[in-house]
Amino acid sequence: MIAKVRKAVFPAAGLGTRFLPATKAQPKEMLPLVDKPLIQYGVEEAMQSGVQNIIIVTGRGKTAIEDHFDVSFELEHLLETRCKKDLLATVRAVSDMIDVSYVRQKEALGLGHAVLRARELVADEPFSVILSDDVIDSEVPCLRQLLDVYEFYSAPVVALMEVPPDAISAYGVVDAEPVAHPGGQNRLYRIRNMVEKPKPADAPSNLAIIGRYVLTPEVFRSLDSVEPGSGGEIQLTDGLKHLLRSRPIYGYRFEGTRYDAGDKLGFLKATVEFALKRYDLGEAFRSYLKTLKL
Ligand code: G1P
């Protein structure tokens, strides 16, 4: 029987330079989309996908993330004495939500390096990786879509999305052939090769890797053997490329809308769209937007 994916690794040690000055003294993972920090969207996606065990790879200046998922006695006490039941439930839901472990990445040496730091906590089992910058709004959680493919083929799977040529250099890009998959609506690919942040002219396709991965533990050995790549960092894409020599890897063009919430414009778009969908804010926010002279 195929091993179940129980763990999700959240690399969260990056410096968040794309979002300065907001990220000078605050982790970018804690930037609120409407009223929830970015990382909570990712954690909820993992839980809704059936993955309960959360591993957060943190770094210096990231204690707010640990506090967020911890119990806050003072706040709970205050809300209790003021009879704010709804707020109390919201606050408790976050700390009750997960079984979370932390590991430090002492230096920001790249995504592959961050994933390697989780090696001992992951141990010898398949696991998932979620980049909380990539917020994905979908009917079926994006990670669940990948897990369905993993459970069918028993092989690593990465999320894919088509991106325009002028944006392709910001991503890991795959060379891949379509694979017929039961009920798959031409979304599944078998990956032949991949390259991290290619120049537009060198990009093997318009299919970019988006921050959701289902991986098997052999990826750690591959990551051990890769040299620093794009940006002088140990890249997860390079580790996966190495793994391709010994294992098939699949790509799944997921169903849903992805926002690059690590980018200022992407963050604004996500904020507006998520606020419009909120049952408690959507109507008032829509009316307000209509009054703007655009
Ligand atoms: C990372 C990965 C890249 C992937 C991207 C998705 O890059 O290295 O392969 O396409 O996430 O968001 P970053 O955005 O951290 O530079």
How would you describe what is shown here?
The protein has about 290 residues and is an alpha/beta fold. It has a domain at about 5-150 and about 210-250: Spore Coat Polysaccharide Biosynthesis Protein SpsA, Chain A (Alpha-Beta Complex), CATH 3.90.550.10. It is built from 11 helices and 13 strands. The strands form 3 sheets. The chain has a 9-stranded mixed β-sheet, with helices on both faces. Strands 2-3 form a two-stranded antiparallel ribbon. A hairpin with a 2-residue loop joins strand 2 and strand 3. The structure holds 1-O-phosphono-alpha-D-glucopyranose (G1P). 1-O-phosphono-alpha-D-glucopyranose (G1P) binds near residues 210 and 236.
User: How many whole angstroms does the radius of gyration measure?
Assistant: 19 Å
The CATH superfamily of the domain at 7-152 and 211-250 is: Spore Coat Polysaccharide Biosynthesis Protein SpsA, Chain A
Give the class from helix and strand content and strand pairing.
alpha/beta
On the 0-100 scale, what is the average pLDDT?
93
Order of helices and strands: EEEHEHHHEHHEEHEEEEHHEEHH
Give the overall shape.
globular
Percent strand: 15-25%
User: Strands of the biggest beta sheet: in what spatial order?
Assistant: 5-4-1-6-11-8-12-10-9
- CATH topology category name of the domain at 7-152 and 211-250: Spore Coat Polysaccharide Biosynthesis Protein SpsA, Chain A
Q: How is the secondary structure organized here?
A:
Blueprint: E1 7-11, E2 32-33, E3 36-37, H1 38-48, E4 53-58, H2 63-68, H3 73-81, H4 85-97, E5 99-104, H5 111-117, H6 119-122, E6 127-130, E7 134-137, H7 142-153, E8 157-162, E9 172-178, E10 188-196, E11 207-215, H8 218-225, H9 236-243, E12 250-253, E13 257-260, H10 264-277, H11 282-291
Helix pairs in contact: 3-4, 5-9, 8-9, 10-11
The protein binds 1-O-phosphono-alpha-D-glucopyranose.
